[in-house]
Design a protein that fits this description.
- Pfam families: CMD.
- GO terms for molecular function: peroxiredoxin activity.
- This is Carboxymuconolactone decarboxylase family protein.
- By secondary structure, this protein is mainly alpha-helical.
- It has one domain: AhpD-like, CATH 1.20.1290.10.
- Helix content is 63%, strand content 0%.
- The chain is built from 7 helices and no strands.
- The longest helix has 23 residues.
- The protein is globular and about 45 Å long.
């Protein structure tokens, strides 16, 4: 599969991507655990079918020490016992926040309360921003058909 468009090579696309990177930096500088961030980014990307992001976040998480068992079970996290209660709450919020069109009312009060039970307000703000930004990255990549090439290396983009 070839990309439809190189948005990074276009001045408008590059400017939009630069803002996404800035928003992502705010999240990475937060106290939301890096493991939780990677699991959420992977799950959102799985839901949206963003191959390039699935490749990237799987490799980044593995490079940071995440196990292949946990990475392989992210798609079935509800039935897996390898995730903490805090990670499970974050994954539920990520799923509901990504599938807002599928559920009347969007994120349920129960999902929010469960996330709030495990994450402080700064972490909730970071988690909310992460879900929103990851959905934006996924949509830009899916719309322009950015392929997963298999050659992504953790750290290649800074």
């Amino acid at each position: 599969m070839d990309a439809r468009f190189d948005y990074a090579g276009n001045p408008v696309g590059a400017k939009a991507a630069k803002h996404f990177v800035s928003a992502s930096k705010v999240v990475s500088d937060s106290t939301l655990p890096a493991t939780t961030r990677e699991l959420v980014m992977l799950r959102v990307s799985q839901i949206n079918g963003c191959a390039v992001c699935i490749e990237q976040h799987t490799k980044v998480a593995a490079h940071a020490g995440e196990t292949s068992v946990r990475l392989n079970l992210v798609a079935a996290w509800r039935e897996a016992t390898v995730f903490t209660d805090a990670e499970r709450a974050a994954l539920e919020l990520a799923e509901q926040g990504t599938r807002t069109a599928d559920a009347a009312g969007g994120v349920t009060d129960e999902a929010w309360a469960n996330a709030a039970k495990h994450h402080d307000e700064d972490q909730l703000a970071a988690l909310t921003a992460l879900i929103a930004v990851m959905n934006a990255w996924n949509r830009m990549n899916v719309i322009t058909r950015q392929p997963a090439t298999g050659d992504f290396e953790p750290g290649q983009w800074g």
